[in-house]
Write a structure and sequence with these properties.
The complex is a heterodimer of chains A (385) and B (99).
Chain A: E1 3-4, H1 6-16, H2 21-41, E2 44-47, E3 51-58, E4 61-64, E5 71-74, E6 77-84, H3 86-92, E7 102-104, H4 110-116, E8 137-138, E9 146-148, H5 195-199, H6 218-264, H7 266-275, H8 281-289, H9 294-311, E10 324-334, H10 341-349, H11 355-362, E11 375-383
Antiparallel strand pairs in A: 2-3, 3-6, 4-5, 7-9, 10-11
Chain B: H1 3-14, H2 18-38, E1 43-46, E2 50-57, E3 60-63, E4 70-73, E5 76-83, H3 85-90, H4 94-98
Antiparallel strand pairs in B: 1-2, 2-5, 3-4
Helix pairs in contact in B: 1-2
Classes of the chains: A alpha+beta (385), B alpha+beta (99).
Chain lengths: 385, 99
């Protein structure tokens, strides 16, 4: 902590205001004496560009004696306060002038807001009243992803601020690093263009100041943008990868599940195969003749006749959409070369539509796979009225 | 005492024009700021008046009670004046005046 006294102030003042040393010294001393006089007279001294000295009443309050811990009363008294002028505040805050308040939105993810393209309306501007932002109360929240919003640091800048862009960004670890990198007070009083606000996308938005102070935030903003983009890309990639893996896992899982179920009972296996398009009931009978795969055939033989006998009574149940009812056996026909079930149906019943009854009654699984010499059972049909 | 009165009093005491008083005030303000901004934690101690200091307010979370929106207030530097106890003695306070 460095201590400066009146002499130091006078020397600095002299650098700015070159004059005789005695004049300079007199000025400084008289300045503060006038303040005291003014406080004496009116209790308030307002100096443009500097601030306001005020005598303020403090009401009596109960307190505790520090040493003993007993309750004591602090009697009402008066104190002298100083409220800096907005211009002085801005001058003093120049290193942090580029920073502004940001609205925190806990609900939104970082990339979703950018992807959605949603833009909230600028946060309510809150004026920095004298003595700080009294309209807010401190909130102990956890650091979360933030959006930018616009805040007029003081009323002078209210007109010059266009709405800022809004992106979700993360809080910097060290707020000191967010201080504007290059802040040169432009003595010419150049007011920065609105472009500086639009291009900035750091955690804190930049505020163009119209009172002759420059603020540059490009360095920090582009870095944060890049990091943000990279994070978004990596997250998207991760999501795609997870989706792909889940699909693959589902396939594998289904395959292994089926194998496990099949391994549980062999009967199910053969029945399933019997009902599948290949091999048909006809093929199984053909296999029957071959010496190879006796076990399989034996099993299938067991399965096949059972199904045939069980599922084909003399009178078969009527299915939905049937116009005819199977009431019994009409004829057993041995399939000849070049004959087809449909030909038979036309021959015997008069229409190809009756083929389905023949197929059903004969227990033919696949009419394309019947061969010459096959015994086809032709049903006796009765019209349903 | 408003600014006009202050300037007039100042110029009267120094026997200078009000314009010079105004410019001088501005330059003195700048001098104080420069002095305090040189190094962090510099205190300008003026005897029988008080201390001027620049303090850093850390960033904090704030909430607008009406909207319920949470905000992050950035860090800032503020100028702080701590009056000297002898200043109170110099100023005969109105409450004491009555007594």
């Amino acid at each position: 902590m460095e201590r400066k006294n009146l002499a130091d102030l006078i020397s600095v003042f002299q650098n700015i205001n070159p004059d005789k040393k005695e004049n300079v010294e007199a000025f400084v001393r008289t300045f503060f004496d006038t303040v005291v006089a003014g406080l004496q007279k009116d209790g308030i001294v307002k100096i443009k560009g500097f601030g306001t000295f005020k005598v303020v009443d403090v009401s009596a309050r109960e307190s505790v004696d520090v040493n003993t811990g007993n309750r004591i009363e602090i009697s009402s008294h008066q104190k002298i306060t100083f409220l800096p002028d907005p211009t002085l505040r801005a001058t003093v805050n120049r290193p942090f002038a580029c920073l502004q308040s940001v609205v925190i939105d806990d609900n939104r993810m970082p990339e979703s807001s950018a992807a959605d393209g949603q833009k909230d309306s600028p946060a309510d501007t809150h004026e920095n009243e004298e003595g700080g932002s009294e309209s807010f109360h401190d909130y102990d929240g956890d650091e979360s992803l933030v959006e930018k919003s616009q805040e007029s640091t003081h009323s002078e800048n209210a007109d010059a601020l266009p709405p800022a862009e809004e992106d979700d960004t993360e809080l910097p670890e060290d707020p000191n690093d967010m201080a504007c990198k290059s802040e040169k007070a432009d003595p010419a009083g150049e007011s920065p263009t609105p472009e500086s606000v639009e291009t900035s996308s750091g955690t804190y938005g930049s505020v163009p100041e119209s009172d002759g102070l420059d603020a540059d935030t490009e360095g920090t903003d582009t870095d944060v943008e890049d990091i943000e983009l990279k994070r978004k890309k990596s997250r998207k990639f991760l999501l795609i990868l997870i989706y792909f893996l889940s699909v693959v896992a589902a396939f594998c899982g289904g395959y292994f599940l089926e194998r496990y179920l099949l391994s549980l009972s062999p009967e199910i296996k053969t029945k399933e195969y019997a009902t599948m398009s290949q091999p048909s009931a006809v093929q199984i009978r053909a296999v029957k003749k071959m010496p190879v795969n006796k076990a399989a055939t034996a099993v299938s033989r067991k399965a096949e006749p059972v199904t045939q006998k069980a599922d084909r009574p003399a009178v078969m149940p009527v299915r939905k959409g049937d116009k005819y009812k199977i009431v019994g056996l009409r004829q057993i026909h041995i399939l000849k070369d070049g004959e087809d079930v449909t030909h038979l149906a036309k021959q015997v019943y008069g229409s190809k539509d009756f083929a389905k009854y023949i197929i059903r009654y004969s227990g033919i699984e696949d009419p394309d796979l019947i061969h010459v010499g096959e015994k086809i059972k032709l049903p006796e049909l009765e019209e349903i009225r | 005492m408003n600014n006009k009165e202050f300037i007039s009093k100042l110029s009267e005491a120094l026997k200078i024009d009000s314009d010079r008083a105004v410019s001088g005030t501005a330059m003195l303000t700048q001098a104080i700021t420069d002095l305090l901004s040189e190094n962090e934690g510099t205190v300008l101690k003026l005897k029988n008046f008080g201390n001027f200091e620049i303090r850093k307010r850390d960033e904090r979370f704030a909430m607008n009670p009406s909207t319920g929106k949470k905000m992050l207030v950035p860090p800032k530097l503020t100028i702080v004046f701590r009056p000297s106890p002898s200043l109170r003695d110099r100023i005969v306070l109105p409450s004491e005046k009555d007594n």
